[in-house]
Write a structure and sequence with these properties.
Blueprint (H helix, E strand, L loop, with lengths): L6 H13 L13 E9 L4 E11 L4 E5 L3 E6 L4 E5 L3 E6 L5 E11 L19 E3 L2 E4 L8 E2 L3 E10 L3 E3 L3 E8 L2 E12 L4 E4 L2 E8 L4 E8 L7 H18 L7 E7 L5 E3 L2 E5 L6 H13 L8 E2 L7 H17 L1 H16 L18 H22 L1 H15 L3 E2 L1 H9 L6 H8 L8 E5 L8 E6 L5 E9 L4 E8 L3 E5 L7 E6 L19 H4 L5 E4 L7 H8 L19 E8 H9 L7 H8 L3 E8 L2 E8 L5 H11 L7 E4 L5 E4 L8 E2 L8
Parallel strand pairs: 1-11, 17-18, 18-20, 21-22, 29-30, 30-32
Antiparallel strand pairs: 1-2, 2-7, 3-6, 3-10, 4-7, 5-6, 8-9, 9-15, 11-14, 12-15, 13-14, 16-17, 19-20, 23-24, 24-27, 25-26, 25-28, 28-35, 31-32, 31-33, 33-34
Helix pairs in contact: 2-3, 3-4, 4-5, 4-6, 5-6, 6-7, 7-8, 11-14
The chain binds zinc ion.
Length: 676
């Protein structure tokens, strides 16, 4: 999802892949089923689970973490239990057809470590429990986990001051003798159930969906409780919107649950979001619709991971992007530019194809799985046209809900709505690395610029927008379909010929940005593979060490580069006294932004990222007031400003940041001279 991490899902997937060769083709009729009765003993931070299930020849084995303490095992004579290094494996004996299984076990949950979240790099939420609540993620294999998704029924008993939440339909909740007993049913197969218990205030709203009533709930901590009405209204609005766009919402409820952990997770019919960030607009406008759309795409139709997880790209496109586009075309253009800009900072060796993307686990994979994935669907929409694209999405949902699907399923569904060869289109983008680099030259045959030759570095397939200005400076835009390395473009109706061309001016194509279009950012240096360092003189002695330890992901290169590397674009970091850095920046045309110049004049610490012919340079200026201890704090803080081009901080703590403006790449073709 947008800013919420899906790390748990990724490690969970790796774990399961090690066990089984996953294929998610189950449907409810032949899925295994688990019945769980869970009692939470909050004083001891312990859960007791009574699990009932059934092994059959189509679901002959399951695993259960061996962290659990088994107190009762009834597996009969037809099954056998093994203990592996980190789990129990319970399997049907050879030659047997079925075995009923009953297990009772307890799990002692570690005390929660509720950090402030700002420094957490591990996704945050692992299992834990105390008097105020518990979190038990499915990736901890806390209940019988089959090779394929299973249906489930969970009954959870807690003290009545606590609430339990699980995915699926809540079919009962009863308060008796100081205890609350809640029941959740998952009639659609699910892989890994997360269980949440907490001391929430619960708000509820119901509305009529396309096929039935939908119950919305918020489970919020006291601080966030005033936001509950807004969240219920937004959830209703988004669900109604996506019912129209995609099809009937597949569950009977949707819940937003506040999490004490610095992360967020989405699961069928609910989302678990850090209580620290619920108040922010990007959660309401991007993360919430993103998690809601996953109920159709990702949870409703599962991505078959072995041929690429399409669900993050399509969800990002239909949620984060679509909602932005509804509000503002220019914000949508900025988002598309952002995907290309992120891609521009992915090192070639870190790049993967859409077909090898499973889940986000570092910046490079998110640039592909989310950014390229979303742009892929944007280009598909351009090829199909918006009405046909929407028809395809509705058809995809109607035909594949609660099944698994791959890119080729989407291709075949959309092919019904277009004459364009989608096989070519999907082959060009899904299994491939890289992106088009496009250039424009005159054709020798027509020196009057009424026909131009477009070249690209591969057989990429897309519709390309070309903005051109005639010799009389009239500008116009045309769109042409591209699929070859060389394409002739005719401008015959423009009898005056073309003087200047801009390619894809609105960033509608997954392509390599031209260097003029790349706004340098601070992040370029944080993630630089082989940054080099130069100290320009200041009272800071250990600048290089501090920058290496607190600012960069990779080590500063010990010696300057070999001669052969000079053709590469270098990233160098220059640290020096702020007055010298200021003098230098005043000469730069890139750093001529008025806000920056004003902020710079009062700053005691400044960072500015600039690009030039030989690469990029990050200037770090420190005033004599800043000692090494302060510099380490400022550098750690600067890491949070990665998306900006510059940052200034004064000794009073006043902070300003901003981006340089985006440049344009113009192909000048008027060498033969303008007539007037
Ligand atoms: Zn997502």
């Amino acid at each position: 999802m947008g800013l919420i991490k899906h790390k748990l899902a990724y490690f969970f997937f790796l774990f399961l892949s090690a066990f089984f060769n996953i294929h998610q083709t189950a449907n409810a009729a032949d899925s295994p089923h688990v019945d769980l009765y869970v009692t939470y003993e909050e004083k001891a931070g312990k859960v007791v689970v009574h699990a009932t299930t059934f092994l059959t020849t189509s679901a002959p084995k399951f695993v259960l973490s061996n962290v659990v303490t088994l107190t009762n095992v009834e597996i009969g004579n037809n099954a056998v239990i093994y203990e592996a290094s980190d789990s129990y494996l319970i399997a049907l004996k050879e030659g047997q057809n079925s075995a009923p299984i009953v297990l009772t076990y307890s799990i002692s949950l570690p005390a929660s470590k509720k950090t402030d979240g700002s420094t957490d790099h591990n996704g945050g939420a692992d299992w834990s429990g105390d008097q105020t609540g518990a979190f038990i993620p499915g990736n901890r294999i806390w209940y019988p986990l089959f090779q394929e998704p299973s249906t489930a029924k969970i009954t959870i008993k807690t003290r009545s001051h606590l609430h339990a939440v699980a995915p699926g339909h809540e079919t009962g909740s009863e308060d008796t003798n100081g205890y609350r007993v809640s029941t959740f049913e998952m009639p659609q197969p699910i892989l890994g159930i997360d269980l949440m218990i907490g001391q929430w205030l619960v708000s509820e709203k119901q509305f009529q969906g396309i096929t039935g009533r939908i119950i919305l709930r918020t489970y919020f901590d006291e601080n966030n409780n005033p936001l509950s009405e807004e969240y219920l209204a937004l959830s209703e609005r988004y669900i109604k919107y996506y019912e129209e766009l995609i099809g009937p919402y597949p569950y009977t409820s949707f819940a937003v649950v506040s999490s004490p952990f610095p992360t967020g997770l989405g699961m069928p019919s609910l989302t678990y979001i850090s209580e620290k960030i619920l108040k922010y607009p990007f959660i309401k406008n991007r993360s919430l619709p993103h998690e809601i759309v996953h109920n159709w795409l990702g949870n409703g139709i599962r991505a078959s991971y072995e041929s690429g997880n399409w669900s993050e790209g399509l969800t990002t496109y239909l949620a984060d992007y679509w909602q932005t586009e509804l509000k503002s075309q220019s914000a949508a253009k900025d988002m598309r530019y952002g995907w290309l800009r992120n891609y521009a900072s992915v090192a070639r060796e870190d790049e993967q194809s859409l077909s090898s993307f499973s889940s986000r686990h570092h910046t490079a994979s998110s640039a592909i799985g989310y950014g390229k994935g979303a742009m892929f669907f944007h280009m598909l929409r351009t090829v199909l046209g918006k009405p046909a694209f929407i028809s395809c999405i509705k058809d995809f949902w109607g035909s594949f809900q609660f099944k698994s699907a791959s890119y080729s399923t989407i291709r075949d569904t959309c092919q019904k709505y277009t004459n364009a060869d989608l096989n070519l289109f999907f082959e060009a983008w899904v299994p491939t690395l890289g992106a088009p680099t496009i250039s424009v030259v005159k054709t020798p045959r027509m020196p009057d610029n009424r026909q131009l030759l477009l070249t690209q570095n591969g057989s990429w397939v897309y519709n390309l927008e070309i903005e051109y200005a005639s010799l009389k400076s009239e500008s116009e835009t045309i769109t042409i379909p591209l699929e070859n390395k060389l394409t002739e473009v005719n401008f015959l109706e423009n009898s005056k010929g073309v003087a200047q061309v801009q390619i894809d001016p609105n960033y509608n194509v997954w392509r390599n940005l031209y260097s003029e279009e790349i706004v340098p950012t601070i992040r370029d240096f944080i993630v630089a593979k082989e940054p080099i360092y130069k100290q320009l003189g200041s009272n800071v002695i250990n600048g290089q060490k501090l920058i290496s330890e607190y600012f960069l992901e990779n080590e500063i290169q010990k010696k300057s580069h070999k001669a052969s590397d000079l053709s590469e674009r270098l990233e160098s970091i220059h640290l020096g006294d702020i007055s010298k850095i200021r003098d230098h920046l005043l000469l730069s045309t890139q750093a001529s932004d008025q806000r920056f110049l004003t902020a710079m004049s009062n700053a005691d610490f400044l960072i500015a990222s600039l690009s030039h012919m030989k690469g990029k340079t990050l200037f770090i200026g420190v005033s004599p007031k800043i000692d090494e201890e302060m510099l380490f704090m400022l550098l750690s803080r600067a890491r949070h400003y990665g998306k900006y081009s510059w940052l200034t901080i004064s000794s009073s703590g006043q902070t300003f940041s901003g981006k340089w403006s985006r440049g344009k790449k113009l192909f000048e073709l008027s060498a033969s001279g303008r007539k007037n």
